[in-house]
Amino acid sequence: MSLVVRDNLPVLIVVALLSSAYVMPLLTKIRRFRFAEFFAVFMIALALSGGIYLGQGILNHGSFTYAVGGWAAPWGIELSLDAVSGFFLITIGLVATPIMLYASYDLVAEVGSRSRAAWFLTLFLLLVAALCGLAITGDIFNIYVMVEVATIASCAIVSARNDSASVAATFKYLMLATIGSGFVLLGIGFLFVLTGNLNLNYIGQTLRLTWQNYPTALWVALSFFTVGFGVKSALFPLHVWLPDAHSTAISPSSAILSSLAIKGYIIALLKIFYVGVGAQIIWELPITAILTLLGMGAIVAGALFALAQDELKRRLAFSTVSQVGYIFLGIGLGNIHGLTGSFMHILSHALTKALLFLAAGAMIKRTGKTRISEMAGIGFKMPVTLGVFAIGSLSMIGIPLFSGFVSKWQLLLGALAKGNYLAVLVLVAGSLLAAAYLLPVLRTALFVRPTPTPAKDEAPSVQLVAMVFLAALVLVVGVFPHQVLQLAQKAAATLLRWGVL
Amino acid sequence: MGGIIVSIAFVIAAILSTALGSLAVALLSREEKGLRNGVVVGSALLGMILVWHLGFAIPSGVYPEISLAIASLSLKLAVDPLGLTYGLIASTLWVFASVYSIGYLHGDDKQKQYFTFFLLSAGITLGLAFSGNLFTFYLFYELLTFATYPLVVHSGTKDALQAGTKYIKYSLVGASFILAGIVMLAFGTGGILDFASLHTALAGLPLGRLVVIFFLFLLGFGVKAAIMPLHGWLPAAMVAPTPVSALLHAVAVVNAGVFGILRTVYSVFGADLVQSMGVRPFLLLICSITILMGSLIALRQDVLKRRLAYSTISQLAYILLGAFLLHPLALAGAILHMIFHSTLKIVLFFSAGIVAEETGYLKVSELSGVGRVLPLTMGSFGLISLGMIGMLPLSGFWSKYYLLRGSLVTGSWPLLVVLLVSGILNAFYFIPITVSAFSGQSELLPRKRTRLVWLMLAPTLVLAILGVVLGLWPGLTWPLVHAVVNQFFIL
Q1: What share of chain A is helix, strand, coil (3-state, %, to 5)?
Q2: What's the whole-model pTM score?
Q3: Which of B179, B182, B193, B212 to mutate to test the interface with A (most CBs of A within 10 A)?
Q4: ipTM, 2 dp
């Protein structure tokens, strides 16, 4: 890797994705459509390898900052490459690559027309670029820009197919997301007024000295962030847009939205809370207790809603509401185990939910059946798809050897360290509820055999490769979590400023 | 004996032989029946030989182990006498059950699925037997639920699916208790979960929290051990094919629960600590209730398999009773009963399965005269049921003898009554079956035989003979029992 590329890698990842996003419509005009799809997969995979390279470097040599355009902080935009960024970059790459690969099969037919498909590729790359930007940025206004890009791209990607249900869902999503953005912007305004800075590190330094002068203002700012990012990341009870949006979108859209898009906002929230404001101050305010409560409420309520759904994709969408609760619970616990658990769950849920949505999409596409009760015997038709669905389900329940267990374990330790036995109960109950809403799918698909036994009719092999790749990752993270767990722990330690202060 | 090579490689090989056998069955085509049957019996046999090899090494006192770090936790396999006991029982009976299954499922169109999970469960069971720490134990315990579920719902009928759901619900809720207990332990000990070092690590923890953890484990393992009132899934699971009921619901799965409780009491907490927690009277009380209620309910069951299921519930509580008495003699009784109950109960289920397949009769009230048509089957049933009651020349006597001695030595007189009354109840619900089978008039029509009956009868007879042999020479099991008792009590 040449020196110029290596030294500027952080910004290049985002720039490369952004520019290739805008090239897509043009590319589909001058080359074959396959080429554009292949190019999109290639760019995301490239971003993934860049992310892994950066993550390795951060793990071995510690974090560093990068001044965009050579303008040093606090005047220029500073990218802050720490374990948090490395972890999220790797997560994005690992999940977005297979989703794009899966989407590349028959995309034109899926969304309706060639030009729509080209726009889908643009939006997808824009979304990934914005998420990468959120991962690495150290500037609060830059966060806002990336949040907006991600939001608009997410909204548009929901209605990729242009049917009435998804357009209605998009509209609902757009309204609520815009309100969320408003809250975020207000929060940013508050922080700027309080500190005179937009750079997160500088905000943090200023606040540490002065926050006791205006605790109420800070408290209001944090509330705005909680509500704003809460809406965008579907924190119960602000989740109302998510089930419609995520269940009516085409499956690759559902997968990327549920697995990655909402996590980007959580990363932004984490950065603002822990880097910008700082753990010591956060703990002084009741915000962590509120996040803990909201997280627990989300786990239980989301799962109960999921139980009530018969439509497979809606059930998975509500499951996301429940799983996001785990992440917020970890943030609320706020200790090293809790935050490590949140990071691990960001990765684990991203892998698992992407896998489940993709598998569900393949099933629905092959059989035309969207309801769980109609899915009897699909396992005989699509054994591999159901096999990976089973792996995803077990991971979501949190069975050991699957990635979900690693995060659940950390969260449990975090809850105990905090002495919060209610959280222990909720975490355990949450996995049981996950079993209750996911296992019936497997039961119906695998063990109810219709007569005559359906013939094998698997998903297309490109999609199978994408799903098997995700399933393999779920197992690899579950069985050999050392490297990622170390990175997650380091990310949590960074947020808590262990070894920094 | 000095020449025996003891290595953890044997454990890994035993687990792999069955797990890879399962994979092979999954990859083989549906039609290759001969090869599949060969793989099933072959890998079960190989697993058994490898475990027995380790069993013969017990006198050497060398117990190998291996760890593989995973997350902040580590997977650890280790050999110890208690684990070997469970491993020997399961791996041996698995071979018999695999032969029986081949006969039983002859002509069934879901054999491939059945044998895939049948062998997978064997591998998981062996993993459970040789788990060296609580996390590994929990892992295999949880996996066992999922691997055995397809066996329970094999027939795919509505009843079977309902029973399967009940089984999953009970097991997962139980496992959650265990997970909560484990995480509390790990938090208290700073991550130490090894059976070998937990005793010392627990010393500093407050007694109140230990009691909570103990009860979390008891609730969790109590589900599979079918302690009342956690037993509801077991009678329901009797819709499973007979070899599954025989192997899983009389041996592997239920013993996994019992084994878990033995581990909790002796490997995690230790007899002294359990004694000082003051929970013993309560534990003995629930065991006594389970023993008596199980027997009483069994008496009222007309469906033979359900009667056997309630008998199992009652008999498992004998083992737990022996464990909770916290005395070497009682523990010896518990270990003996675990061995003997497994070998005897599987014969009873096997016989019931043959009767059901040959005559179509499932109820006790229909069995009149069946003994004249199926003399060998009902003969084994009659003989072995005497063993369950605890008649002298049969193995069941010896375990009960030690349990009685254990309760006498510890001064628990009421238990003497419990054991004797339950013995009488056993006689009431077992003996009439045999009597009517041989005395009543038979009105049987010959049935079309789709199953290979001799493959079902052969393992039944061999195990029946084994039951008698163990009764005549109970000393055969002594090295094992002695090693287990020595492991936990300094004699």
Answers
A1: 80, 5, 15
A2: 0.89
A3: B179
A4: 0.84
